[in-house]
Design a protein that fits this description.
Blueprint (H helix, E strand, L loop, with lengths): L1 H5 L1 H7 L6 E6 L5 E7 L6 E2 L2 E3 L6 H13 L3 E12 L4 E10 L12 E8 L7 E2 H11 L4 E7 L4 E2 L1
Parallel strand pairs: 1-6, 5-9
Antiparallel strand pairs: 1-4, 2-3, 2-7, 5-6, 8-10
Length: 157
C-alpha cells in the first residue's frame, strides 16, 4: 500500500499518532516464559501486552494488559528493551517481571485464546522473531535500553 510506505509522514498529515506498546517477559520458577495466543491475525503466540492508553505510563500499560489478558498481577522488575518498529511507526517497551506466588494465569480476554508457560527450548509456533528477541533480551544481563529499529516482523513456523 502506498500510504504504508510513508509511515510516519502519513500519520503526521492526518494527525494520527501511534501509541507506544508495552509487553511483559514473565518467567516462572522453572525458567519457562509466559506466552499468550491471540484470537485474531495469525493466532500467534506473543508476550502479554498491548497499547498504551492516554495518560498511562508504559509500566501502567504492561500491568493493565497482563491483568486484562491473563487475569493476574505482574510485579515489574526492570526495563529490558526499547524497540522501534519502523513499519508500524511504533515504540515498544519490554519489561521483565514475575507473578505473585500462587498466581495462576488464564486466558481472560476475548482477544486471548490460550496462555501457558513454555520452556525456552520448545517455544510454540507461530511466533515472531520480535517475540524471540524480547525474550532473549530479558534473559540477558545487558539491558537493551538503546532503541532498536526493527524492520518487518518475520514469522517462524
Amino acid at each position: 500500500m502506498l500510504l504504508g510506505a510513508f509511515g510516519g509522514l502519513y500519520n503526521d498529515l492526518i494527525g494520527r499518532r501511534s501509541r507506544p506498546g508495552a509487553a511483559a517477559v514473565i518467567f516462572d520458577g522453572e525458567d519457562r516464559v509466559l506466552l499468550v495466543r491471540h484470537s485474531y491475525g495469525r493466532r500467534s503466540w506473543e508476550l502479554p501486552g498491548g497499547g498504551r492508553k492516554a495518560k498511562e505510563s508504559v509500566e501502567e500499560t504492561v500491568r493493565r494488559e497482563v491483568r486484562e489478558e491473563v487475569g493476574v498481577e505482574v510485579m515489574i522488575e526492570r526495563l529490558t528493551g526499547i524497540y522501534y518498529e519502523r513499519d508500524a511507526d511504533q515504540h515498544q517497551f519490554a519489561f521483565a517481571g514475575h507473578l505473585i506466588e500462587g498466581s495462576s494465569p488464564r486466558a481472560s480476554s476475548a482477544e486471548i485464546l490460550d496462555c501457558a508457560y513454555w520452556p525456552l527450548n520448545a517455544l510454540p509456533r507461530p511466533i515472531s522473531d520480535f517475540t524471540l528477541r524480547r525474550i532473549e533480551d530479558a534473559r540477558s544481563e545487558r539491558p537493551r535500553i538503546t532503541v532498536t529499529v526493527r524492520g518487518r516482523r518475520r514469522w517462524i513456523g
